[in-house]
Amino acid sequence: MLPATHTDILPDHILAAVLTLAKRERNEKRFAFRSYDFQLQGIFHELAGKYPILGAYVFSDSGPEPYSPALNESVSRLQLSGLIGRENPNYEVVFLNDAADKFYDEVLSGKFDPSQQKQLSEIASEFLQRVDVV
Question: Domain segments of the chain: what residues?
Answer without folding.
Answer: 11-113
